[in-house]
Amino acid sequence: MDTEKLTTRSRDAVSAAIRTALTNGNPNAEPVHLLHALLLVPDNPVAPLLAAVGAEPSVVDAAARGAITKLPSAQGSSVTQPAMSGGLARVLADAETRAQQLGDAFVATEHLLIALAAVQSDARKILNDLKVTAEALNEAFAQLRGPKRVTSPEDEGAQSALDKYSVDLTAAAREGKLDPVIGRDAEIRRVVQVLARRTKNNP
Fold it and tell me: Which site among 78, 140, 163, 186 is 20 to 30 Å from 154 CA-CA?
């Protein structure tokens, strides 16, 4: 798949998966490396998605790390840059297809997790053994993100950067979460007039 179609966090996760394979002397980067890497990405939305289907992220990660220790490995000078396994390539292709079907322009970390639960591999076995299925993740993902779509590399399915780092005051006012401003009508009107001016004097 085209890595330009990955969100920044997804790209970080794939890079971390390859680094993990290299660190462990594994000749190939496997889906289980990606499962472990997804839980390493800072502020990732994968942990809440796992929690939403009743899985403990730390338990999933421990199982992934255990599976990594059982993979073929080399040591010393025989360690080479890991290649992407066929299994991992299938996971990435499946994630891209799912993103397109959901109307997303980029592949977010949630798409990768759902693909890991769907495509035959050690990672799928780990998730399925913990009662985490692609169907359950899909359903939880749809509920968590609502109508949002991944439209830029900085977005994630459940939460965009704008949602994460800002407060929607208009929505809060509609929901009655802001205290009403009582009195000061003249002052408020004056502030609006000043702000609406094309040019403003320095105070």
Answer: 140
